[in-house]
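user: can you give me the structure for this one chain? C-alpha cells are fine.
assistant: on it. calling the predictor now.
[tool input]
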Amino acid sequence: MSFAGTFKALAHPIRREILTLLKEKSLTAGEIASHFDLAGATISHHLSILKKAGLVVERREKNFIYYELCTSVLEDIMTWFADLKERSGDENE
C-alpha cells in the first residue's frame, strides 16, 4: 500500500489505539475487541484496513488468529520523514 493508504489507516483513532495495544504483544481479535465498546465486525473492519496498509500481520496458531504489529512500514515512513527533515534543514543553512 502507498504512503497515502498508510496515512489514511493511521488517521482513525481506533486504529491508532489498536496499534498501541499490539505494541505490547500479539492479540486475537477478541482480545483487541475487549478494549473497546464496539461490535466485533467493527474491530474486524479496522483490522482489515490495518492489514491492507501493512501495519498489522496475522499469524495462525491452532484455532486462533493473532495480530501483530508490523514495524517495517512505520520504519519506511520514519525514514521518509527524516529525509524530508534533512533536506529542509539543508535549505535553512
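assistant: here you go. The chain has one domain: 3-87. The CA atoms of residues 51 and 57 lie 6 Å apart.
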